[in-house]
Specification:
Largest sheet: none
Strand content: under 5%
Oligomer: single chain
Shape: elongated
Distance between the termini: 26 Å
Low-confidence stretches: none
């Protein structure tokens, strides 16, 4: 591997982090949506602590999935509009690594804040404190999967008419296994069953998505700029 490639990869990630700090509305909007959507469930389901505790794994994971979708339509779209995507493609990084850098930046600016917000939301829903590490570990894997799949889908619909409508239709079916395994691990931990197999399956899903999604996203970026 060219010695300059790691430096270029870090530079692209750092650029996106600086842009996210400068324009923090996307991150703030995703976190506020996550908290507010989770807070609506007790109003709809009623104040029963036992019901909320039983529903909490699904509530947290569904809200995290939907919140992670919010910034995806701008993941590559703003760069395509102002021409900076062409510069990134000419920077010397392979398109797959350009896509991977954007996905990593998306996780750092969206997935990581969702992890921080997940703990108070889980406590509000009545999850026992001993299962919080399992929740956070599962969400760390799951939000990384969502960033990879979301970045791949965002590159595929890049430049398409009504791409913002197509994006959730592509992401939601592909992200369903992560939702199932993550919620199942948390539910198993609450009932005293073994939660490790579900997290291992989630980790395997991440291991499969890590090489495949950037390759597919790189092909989408190449097609968009050409």
């Amino acid at each position: 591997m060219n010695a300059s490639i790691p430096a270029l990869l870090a530079a692209v990630i750092g650029r996106d982090l600086r842009l996210a700090v400068r324009h923090g509305a996307d991150t703030l909007g995703a976190v506020l949506f996550f908290i507010l959507a989770g807070a609506l469930f007790p109003l709809a389901l009623g104040p029963s602590p036992e019901l909320l505790r039983r529903m909490a794994p699904g509530i947290v994971w569904v809200c995290a999935l939907l919140a992670a979708l919010l910034p995806l339509d701008r993941l590559f779209g703003s760069e395509l509009e102002d021409g900076s995507l062409d510069q990134l493609m000419l920077s010397g990084l392979p398109p797959a690594l350009v896509a991977l850098a954007k996905m990593v930046a998306h996780w750092l600016t969206t997935g990581l804040p969702l992890l921080v917000a997940a703990a108070p939301l889980a406590i509000m829903l009545g999850l026992p404190l001993p299962v919080l590490p399992i929740l956070l570990g599962g969400l760390a894997l799951g939000t990384a999967v969502l960033s990879l799949i979301g970045g791949m889908a965002a590159s595929i619909v890049l430049g398409a008419r009504r791409g913002g409508v197509l994006l959730p239709l592509l992401v939601l079916p592909l992200a369903t296994p992560a939702l199932i395994f993550g919620a199942a691990a948390l539910d198993a931990a609450q009932t005293g069953l073994s939660w490790a197999p579900d997290l291992e399956l989630l980790g395997a899903f991440l291991a499969a998505a890590l090489p495949l999604c950037p390759l597919a996203a790189g092909a989408g970026l190449r097609a968009a700029v050409e």
